[in-house]
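Listing S7. Sequence submitted for prediction.
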Amino acid sequence: MADEPKELAGMVPAEIVKVFRVRKGKKFRLADIDPADTLGLDIEKDDAKQLLAQGVKRLRDLQERLYAEGRWSVLIVLQAIDAAGKDSAIEHVMSGINPQGCDVTSFKAPSATELRHDFLWRAAIKLPERGRIGIFNRSYYEEVLVVRVHPEILAGQNLPPELVTDQVWEERFASIAAFEEHLARNGTVILKFFLHVSKEEQKRRFLERIDEPDKRWKFSAGDIVERGHWDAYMAAYEDMIRHTATKTAPWHVVPADNKWFTRLVIAATIVDRLERLDPKFPPVDDEALKEMEKTRKALMAEKS
């Protein structure tokens, strides 16, 4: 069942967040999501910045309570094809929160040590502690994305040959779903985002990286090679969402052709979930209050 509509002060309303939430993935079709969609929201760049700033402020307040309470942890998973805006989303959405309560992990190609473990191991050791927000820039989902598009990677993972069958992807989906269910049962809130950018917009952003000197450092020839596998990646993303979108850990498929809208939806989604979680500052008992009052009087009595 969809969440009840609820206005978020000064932000994109929760009704917009619901549009992109996928809880039952069986019939999901990526073609149903327009990467350029803004749901008719037509605002100036400065207005978008102001809306995001208001959302970031609310997120900061909620994160402080989450950290102080120390009971829940939040895992934010960001998946997308190259140039969809994951890095900039992290930069802008999480810009105002306390860095003591947030960790960002970017998953690259597995190391030799990581390959000696199961595919979820390296993610498990990077999970956020209670009271903290953890952001996975790419994640264990790469194991059903890039590894699926490039089967030679799977061949190099040293798995027993009899375990690499035609069912390997379905088995990994099942492992991921069980892993996320386990995390949820132990106090980790999981928010998963797929940033859905169009092939045309990716091309524009790649050209921008080539043409603008201050963006050339972002350019990688390998990204162009991966662009050649566009259709295979889109099929893999769609299958991933169909098999791993659940009530416990839904996917949010966010249009990514307009970065300002992507950031607003991500921020609104995180705030909406934390609002419903409603973390509290720990109560202070009477004895502690008395001790504080004694300390206050002693400080006030000090001579400058």
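Caption to Listing S7: primary sequence and predicted structure tokens for the chain studied. The longest helix spans residues 45-69. Confidence is low (pLDDT under 50) at residues 1-12.
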